[in-house]
Amino acid sequence: MPAMPLPQRHRVLAAAAFLAALTGCSTVDGYSRSLVNTLTPYKVEVVQGNFISREQVEALQKGMSREQVRNILGTPLVTSLFHGDRWDYVFTLKRRGVDEQKRHLAVFFKDDLMDRVEGDPMPSESEFVTTLDNKRKLGKVPRLEATEAELRAFQSKNQPAATASAAPAPAPAAGTPPTSYPPLESVR
Questions:
Q1: Is the pLDDT of residue 22 over 90?
Q2: How far is residue 184 from each of residues 141, 156, 161, measured CA to CA in Å?
Q3: With b meaning 16 or more CB within 10 Å and e meaning fewer, what string describes 1-12?
Q4: Sign of torsion, CA 67 72 77 79?
Q5: Which of 42, 90, 99, 179 could potentially form a cystine with 49 if both were Cys, beta carbons 3.0 to 4.6 Å apart?
Q6: Using an 8 Å Cβ cutoff, are 53 and 122 in contact?
Q7: Pair 71, 99 in one domain
Q8: Do 99 and 60 share a domain, yes or no?
Q9: Structural domain of residue 31, as residue ranges?
Q10: Rounded to the nearest 10 degrees, how much is the dihedral formed by the CA atoms of 84, 87, 93, 94?
Q11: How many domains in the chain?
Q12: Looking at residue 114, what is its pLDDT?
């Protein structure tokens, strides 16, 4: 291939750069946008305040003491010297790519007994947990319990030889927890 004169070579390079830029613009909604999202800096998830569930609010009853309310809702985020008969529970959750969640609940007292509750409608615990899905798929959660047969099979497979020759310990009565447990590490 013969060498191009310098001005023509610049035109070809400029045209190639222009076409590359033009095709890049058409993919902004697709691949390039996902590439840009992966290159953004990490933003910390900010959780502030007390999460109050609908179940907790439903457990409150007029006439409860301050201590009973604190046992159900936790320590209030805001207490004021100027409003001693009011406790404010505020909850905010800021996460990248998700709308900010803000909830507020005010508990009013009269003569140190709960009088009324005002605030945002609170989600149930299960509804709140579903809003926390951060698009990471962690895979299937393993079963965290073992059956009696699986435990016996595990014990027989992992029982040290020295212990196997010893007389077996008497089994505890049904329904009572054992008083001693096998060692965590085998003795050699």
A1: no
A2: 25, 14, 15
A3: eeeeeeeeeeee
A4: negative
A5: 90
A6: yes
A7: yes
A8: yes
A9: 14-43
A10: -20
A11: 2
A12: 94
H/E/C letters for each residue in 101-151? EEEEEEEEEECCEEEEEEECCCCCHHHHHHHCCCCCCCCCCCCCCCCHHHH
pLDDT per residue as tens digits for the range 176-185: 776 777 777 7
Rg (CA), the chain: 32
Q: What is the pLDDT of residue 142?
A: 77
51 and 29 share one domain: no
53, amino acid identity: S
Residue 185 lies in a domain: no
Residue type, position 19, single letter: L
d(CA 62, CA 116): 7
The answer on 73 and 55 residing in a single domain is yes
165, two tokens: 């020759």
Q: What single string gives the DSSP state of each residue in the chain?
A: -PPPPHHHHHHHHHHHHHHHHHHHHHTIIIIIHHHHHHTSPP---EEEE----HHHHHH--TT-BHHHHHHHH-S-SEE-SS-TTEEEEEEEEEETTEEEEEEEEEEEEETTEEEEEEESPPPPHHHHHHHT--S----PPPP----HHHHHHHHHHH--HHHHHSPPPPPPPTTS--SS---SS---
pLDDT above 50 for 164? no
CB-neighbour burial class of residue 119 (10 A; exposed 0-12, middle 13-18, buried 19+): middle
| Same structural domain, 27 and 65 | no
